Input
Amino acid sequence: MTTNDVFEPVGPSAYVTGENRAGTKNVSGSATDFTYAARGLLAVPQNPVIASKDGKSVVWNSASFEFLEDLENVPPMVSAPVWRQGVLLQRAGLFQVASQRAGAVYQVRGFDLANMTIVTGSTGLVVIDPLGSSETAQAALQLYRFATEDQKPVSAVVHTQSGVDHFGGVRGLFGAKVPANLPVYAPDRLLADALLNQVTNGAQSAKLLDYAYGTRLEPGPSGLVESDLGLTLYVGTSTFVAPTHTVGGLLPAATSQADWPASTQIAWHEGLYVVEVDGVELVLQPLSGHAASPEMNVYLPAFNTVYLAGPGPLGGVNKARAAFLDQTIAAFGATARIGMSAYGWPVWTTVGEDMTTPGNEVSAWLSAHRAAATTADPGALASVVNSSGYAGTPTRTVRELWAKLAGTSLGAPDLAVTAKAALIAQGGAAKLIAAAQNAYDKTTPDYAQAVVLLDPVISACSIPLAVPANTEKQARTLQSHALTQLAYLSTNGRLRNACLTAAHDVLNPGSIVTRFPQTITDLAAAANPLS
Output
């Protein structure tokens, strides 16, 4: 049954308001985050609105997040950590990260969930991670050209991860046709993993992303504020160009100690690849042999800059990733003076500072990424630069929430017959609704318990006449309110988004339509070029 109610988010309860106001006094994070997030700004977006290719829809609108400009006045329906992260991520534009006589490194941030990095080469531009849609990537490159007056073509592309926000915008960097000889670097197995997530499991992945990144939520204090890694996801056209060079597999072999070039200014470490792309020397560190998505970090010797592909403190516990980051710290930690990532903002260490001391901010930044892969305790990271105390496992929580409330092959939803049996065993729908209302109304409310108590009532509604229509509406409304209060209390942007989206969908279960294509045509063609 669908209630067809217009979803109006309920306001924060007195308990939520009190908890969030108290939380503003103890929000963790470094004050230098705001300095670093603004450093090097060359140009703000020429037009905050990025339209789809056909001009009929909006792919991205950075102006819709202007409500995040005031750090001090946190609305009562937003937790302080979520608001702080949103204010930091709202800074959009072209930023110069590093420069040397030979060239410069730039980032376009705030055009998508991820960042696009541009390194100037001898004849063109080396682009690292060209965002998730061709529309946002095209707009990002246009901003670069406008601000720098550099019209050189894109000479090479580097994809550091199999997530679509690392490769989906690649065709937007070019005109009608991608150059036939374009070098595209990626970790081994990127194509296979991208196919699995975007084609084979495309429908499930799209629904999960829809929940986690709040793509159907309206930006604002009662809706979408931020999504941990960035503000939210693009909703444009995702594309793909198959890698021409991969690292981390059986072939080619990593650079040997005998062939290690002194120009890298770092010692040889096993498993690293040194390549020269349009005059830009890159040291590629692939994640190989771990049960994780294909990924690789990049070191730019000319700029003493290390680039991390993964989300760091926002990515959740992953022991394989921790071991991988141990290798990153050993290889680059002592020499890197700049740390940058596919997400968030860079960090800098002052030139001339002893690069081996614990005070090195890049080393601390790398350590925060490493620590986040081994602990889900935000407090453990509060004192580390750029960590902001946002450790946790939001993706897993969102996945479980989606499985419970929407019912997909991501998890096993309650069967209606099982739910009906539960109703009978627990005294019927009226008794469960009363218990849920009691949990909701307590002095110290238990909103999560209210949600769980209402699950069998709502699941049984698919059986004709099992639950009266007025009882169903009462159960759905109460669960929607409980989910909304949980969202307001959440200190994690993606969990907040999932709860608010679920609060909408539990009222209107027939309206669940994601805004993402289930497959990417380019990926399917790359997998079977003869088709």
